[in-house]
From TrEMBL:
PROSITE patterns: HTH_ARAC_FAMILY_2
Molecular function (Gene Ontology), one example: DNA-binding transcription factor activity
Lineage, broadest ranks: Bacteria, Bacillati, Bacillota, Bacilli, Bacillales
InterPro entries in the cross-refs: AraC-bd (IPR003313), Homeodomain-like_sf (IPR009057), HTH-like (IPR037923), HTH_AraC (IPR018060), RmlC-like_jellyroll (IPR014710), Tscrpt_reg_AraC-type_HTH (IPR020449)
Gene source species: Paenibacillus hemerocallicola
Domain named HTH araC/xylS-type: residues: 198-296
Source superkingdom: Bacteria
Name this protein carries in UniProt: Helix-turn-helix domain-containing protein
Length: 309
């Protein structure tokens, strides 16, 4: 409306859409134990693989390569691929339908993700936890199912974040082809981010075997406890010590999957006062005891190994 009169015949601008992703085949977040491997497979859709922790050895029709924390690759349709790990490794895997010709630029590429790209993946992962049932951490679950009472728009956001990620990667390839040397395909970046908060997170991760406190961390980095708590709440949505305890539990999961230590040794290495306290803390955080966690992971992997023989 302008001066009380109706504006008619206003010209619309049709936004250009380069491609559309509206169908997923799988959405997984796997915590794999050491010595895991697959017999190999191929399929007629794209598969995105991101190494969130550990190291992944990949064998395809075209090449053999190793991916470490922060690396991503995409298997193109009908590419035979198999993987193996020698240590406990966490993977995010999303497979989807896509026929756009622009995707050919991503064939045989491996990317070290930037901080911005990792943020996109993190947000997509959050929505994946919200959207699907069985949970995306369920090993070797073949089909996706809708989770009851999921948050409004979670599947829509997954599509949006996935398309954003593909666009970001395609732009990086185009920058390389254009001769720009500021964004290499493999980037040596600090996986915990930069700045004060990144330094604090790195320090906490490097000292999971200690018993850090809110006081000791704030003194170490010359920051008030109030400011420290605010930084963590704004960045990760949880408290400082809750984040530190989460790091300990994740490290405990890794050590359990690697099968190199007894539970008593794990408790000692992670600074727990006793194995009993470690068991109680682990169960409170994960809903299962360390023994139950080990049995769940290993039994599913054994069943998968038998199924692919």
């Amino acid at each position: 409306m302008a001066n009380g009169s109706e504006i008619r015949g206003r010209r619309q601008y049709a936004l250009q859409r380069e491609f559309c992703i509206d169908k997923l085949y799988t959405f997984h977040y796997y915590e794999l134990s050491k010595s895991f491997y697959t017999k190999g497979e191929k399929h007629d859709f794209w598969e995105l693989v991101y190494v969130d922790k550990g190291k992944l050895e990949v064998f395809t029709d075209d090449r053999h390569f190793v991916m470490t924390q922060g690396d991503m690759t995409l298997y193109h349709p009908n590419l035979h691929h198999k993987v193996s790990v020698e240590q406990a490794t966490n993977l995010m895997i999303v497979s989807f339908d896509m026929t756009a010709t622009c995707m050919s630029a991503l064939v045989n590429q491996t990317f070290r993700l930037t901080r911005e790209e990792r943020f996109i993946l993190t947000e997509m992962l959050k929505e994946g936890y919200e959207a699907f049932d069985p949970p995306i951490t369920t090993l070797f679950q073949m089909y996706l199912g809708k989770r009851g009472q999921s948050a409004f728009g979670c599947e829509h956001l997954i599509m949006t974040y996935l398309e954003m990620m593909i666009i970001k990667l395609l732009r990086r390839v185009q920058s390389i082809e254009a001769g720009a040397d500021s964004i290499p395909l493999i980037m040596n970046m600090n996986p915990t981010g930069q700045g004060l908060l990144g330094n604090i997170k790195s320090y906490m991760k490097s000292n999971v075997s200690e018993n850090l406190s809110l006081d000791s961390i704030s003194e170490k980095f010359y920051i008030s406890k109030t400011r420290l708590k605010t930084l963590f709440k704004e960045d990760v949505g949880i408290g400082v010590m809750q984040y530190y305890n989460h790091l300990k539990i994740e490290e405990a999961k890794t050590m359990i999957r690697e099968e190199a230590y007894t539970y008593t040794e794990i408790a000692e290495r992670l600074g727990y006062s006793s194995s009993h306290y470690f068991f109680n803390t682990f169960k409170k955080a994960t809903g299962m005891t360390p023994t139950e966690y080990a049995q769940t992971v290993h039994s599913k992997i054994r069943r998968h190994a038998e199924a692919v023989k």
